[in-house]
Fold this protein.
Amino acid sequence: MKAVTRILVLSLCMFLVSGCWDRREVNDIAIVIAMAMDKEPDGRYRLSIQVPLVSSLGAQSGGGGGTSGDKSYYVDSAVGRTIREANNLIQARMSREIYYSHHRMIVIGEQLAKEGMSEVLDIVARFPENRLTAYIVMTRGKGIELLTAQPQFERFSGEAMRELVKMGGIKVSLKDVAQMLSTPGVDAILPVLAAVDSHPKGKSKEIEATGVGLFRHNKLVTIAKPKELTGLRLFQPNFTPFSVVLPLNKHEQLTIIYSKGRANINPEIRKGHVHFNIDLYASAVVTENMSNLDLEKEKNIRMLQAKLAEQINSGVKQTMQTIQRHRSDFIGLGITLSRNYPQEWRVRYRNRWNEELPKITYEIRTKVNMANFGQTTKNITQGEDDHE
């Protein structure tokens, strides 16, 4: 009887062993590492994909644009009425199955961003083979231009884009964009990258961060240059250190790195008018002193902290002016208002927040702490008798 029981148990267990019924051999798939989506003048969509050529990964040169041979990657593109149709056209001429599970970068072309990106992002997020953690960026002109660029430090432009986004401080994933587009009280932003000539000019095209795309709802309203949004970094959920140059006078300046920073936004409704109190905190480190300033003296430290606070105030004020001018709430002022005044938000502001932005007022208060001056408090070229 025990032997029969054992046989029955083993037989039942065999039904639970499915094996590798859905396996995909590496030799049978084309692994996409980056993709770009553009809008054509006739209204159709262009999908472009970047695929590494495994057999050529040992080669020294890069390449793309739909060619192969000794190139280490392959870029293909097709136009369709939908992104899925364009994908099917690429698949029809590719001997391997297109596989999106490992893609790390999504590039949105400028024209598509202007007309609205919600529709094309639907297909990217709808299927589980697409990664919600993939970074998303945009570019002026066509997105395919970034895929065909040939950077020198990375084998694929898709990898160069990913590393730039990670270091740049403005990191936006597909999941982040989905949340921004579906949440009232915040508008989307996307890092803007471009393919530029290497210096000195050569055959390679390097990837460069050139600004930030600001959206209202799901449409691009403007592309701001980095210097226009220096205050934006303080409002990011995960602060990334960044450096600034602080001029003391016409001939002297210091280079400062903000190692830590955060922003607290506290809204008030005053007789039907929305006001924001913005408190900013930052820790600074001196990395370059091109002046006669002796940072060992307390009065110089206080002066430096005051100048840095003034510089931050100016940058955040410029950011707020950009928000009001373009009616794009990319730092989430509306979210803080909805949390503090939920009833007023639902009744009065939720459905017309972008129209309300030009009317808001704000007060900015900044505190900067000098955390470190390096190994010396003054320029090592200055003698003991030199003065500030």
